[in-house]
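Most newcomers find our protein records easier to grasp once they have seen one. The structure tokens are whole numbers drawn from a learned vocabulary of backbone shapes. The record below serves as our worked example for the rest of this section.
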Amino acid sequence: MIFKRLEEIKDQDLEGLLSRDMGIQEVMPIVNEILMEVASKGDQALLNYTEKFDNAKLKHLRVNPEEIVSAYESVDQSLFDHLEKAAENIAAFHHDQRERDLWLTETSPGVIVGQKVVPLDSVGCYVPGGRASYPSSALMSIIPAKVAGVSRVVVCTPPNSDGNIMPLTLVAADLAGADEIYKLGGAQAIAAMAFGTDTIARVNKIVGPGNVYVTSAKMLLRGTVEIDFPAGPSEVLIIADRSANASILASDMVAQSEHDPNSVSILVTPDELLAGAVAEELQIQSNKTERNEIVSTSLDHSAILMANDMTDAIDFANSFAPEHLEIITIEPMTILKEIQHAGSIFLGPYTPVAAGDYASGTNHILPTSGFARVFSGLNVDYFTKKISVQMITAQGLLDLSETIIALAEAEGLKAHAESVKKRIELMKIDI
């Protein structure tokens, strides 16, 4: 772990922290081969890859109603109730994000312009599997799509070696409103949703987190299908002052580290005593955690950084553009005003990242690796398109005509100018 003052960090260490290489370039040749195989062989390629990568020999890719019923029966009622509560909060938050379906405004006499918001026809949601079951990611990707009004939501998630999807993930996908669920993971799942096969009809857009192969596939196929954003290993940056509890800060860093060996956890504070106390707590807590090996590897490339002051800490946070940003200070709202780049922000000592991951209602599918500088976290807008609308009266066009004609002719587009002139001539005839 890097444990230094901000100004003492070597350029190489700083570059490593800021760049967070996702390893996409290394896997692109393999992923491209998978994509081409799916494009040419369709369902057969999907079945072959599922057997190769997931050790599951499937007879059919699509989850049938009987499998969904069986999944509901195997999920503990108490756990289902918690899943349902999380789903309700996620739906409520994303309903508040919805814009008006249509708005119109008169910008000048006789000139009315506006916007119509329309949901996408179809969306593919990738729900990761592998090291753990992620029912929360099913809720986070499917519910906003349904709130936005998407009529066809397709879900792909890897099966276990027995050919089944984890029951809780399957229940979550059904509860969230998925229209089609497929036992399919990895780059091959992204290819199937992008190209379409005999079993899986293609979609307009693909969203959801995944490993480096999934992310690579999404980026390679962006010319074929739209995606949300690239996403790498999870990360948290914490800005804290002397009011923060060292044990809580260490706990949040360990929590982030258990996601993946490549996850990154960073604390930035102007308080040296707090920095030292967190370092000690990390040693204690990381040794006790169940996923100790993953946590330890992650913490090896994480950092505790001592800033000269809070302005210094804020500047670094904006440079880092973290996926998750915790602000645990005496006046978090003051610091919030200065934050420009973050996927999701958590204010105060009682707002852990875990709250946003599962139950508060905000979305946990977020840009990583500095992409928060240009991308928002997943939200309702990702599932809609906006169409401009305008209606102009005769007088309104007359008032605009000189400007339109002058600019059209200046660009050498005489027919554009003529389309306005003809209307002006007709006005004279009508008069």
Summary: The mean pLDDT is 94. The first strand starts at residue 2 and ends at 5. The first helix runs from residue 11 to 19. The radius of gyration is 26 Å.
